[in-house]
Specification:
InterPro entries: Bact_2-comp_sensor_kinase (IPR050640), HATPase_C_sf (IPR036890), HATPase_dom (IPR003594), His_kinase_dom (IPR005467), Sig_transdc_His_kin-like_C (IPR004358)
Order of helices and strands: HEEHHEE
Oligomer: single chain
Structural class: alpha+beta
CATH architecture: 2-Layer Sandwich
CATH superfamily: Histidine kinase-like ATPase, C-terminal domain
Shape: globular
Keywords: ATP-binding, Kinase, Nucleotide-binding, Transferase, Two-component regulatory system
Helix content: 25-40%
Number of strands: 4
Protein name: histidine kinase
Catalytic activity: ATP + protein L-histidine = ADP + protein N-phospho-L-histidine
Pfam family, one: HATPase_c
Strand order of the largest sheet: 1-2-4-3
Number of helices: 3
Distance between the termini: 10 Å
CATH class: Alpha Beta
Amino acid sequence: MLIPPLSIQTLVENAIRHGVLKKIDGGTILIKVVRFEEHSEVIVQDDGVGMDEEKINEVLSSKPEQSRGIGIVNTNTRLKQMFGTELKIYRVPGQGTTVTFNVPHKK
């Protein structure tokens, strides 16, 4: 399976910086890959403070040159270019954030 370079690292760094480090008692990050017939889903989940809806929309609609933090924006752009897919971000305020993306299997 071909995964864009630094995509998982970028998501983990973001989960650390903006999720678990903002909690007094820290937190946990889960990295998981689930294989399906046509694709695999990459999941990075934290139990940090959670992203707000405005930040999620900003990240997913920004262009790399518009954003101060470009890691997630660049990852999303690469996924669109390589696979025609993009990041999906789910959040529960105060309980964490889950970021997923799908990678099609080579035929």
